[in-house]
Amino acid sequence: MKNITSLIDTNVLINFITKREDPYKNDCLKIMELCAENAFEGYIAFHSLSIIWYVIKKQETEEKARAWLSNICDMLTVTGATQAQIKEAVKNSDFHDFEDCLQDKCAVHANAEYIVTCNAKDFQLAKTKIVTPDVFVNIITEERSKT
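The structure assignment produced for this chain is given below.
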């Protein structure tokens, strides 16, 4: 089986953790199940951890928040970006959301084939191919069926 590499956007992980109502809720759960099964090589941008921490801490204790982050770091490889890539992101006014630009830079740094996000429209200028959770689940499922 081809080892597909993907950066998982913050919103996919927040949907997974909080089980919030979202059109991709079930697909977000499936993505993390597939990740736990090593069906693909998953990455998380370093800065996503602080966003996830902030969201979890609104609902859970610090101990539970740390446990979630630890589990995520066990399932996904944390990636960053070079200083030059970060400076490019700072100068890039094409992205509506700076955080999304950072996601793209981290995906490039990790050599990810895909960024999996619930907000594909926010990544129109990304250098990495963007897929929604449902599309990504289909990609992995099709790839697994080839073996």
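Interim note for the steering committee: Residues 5-145 form a domain with the Rossmann fold fold (CATH 3.40.50.1010). Strands lie at 5-8, 41-45, 77-79, 114-116, 129-131.
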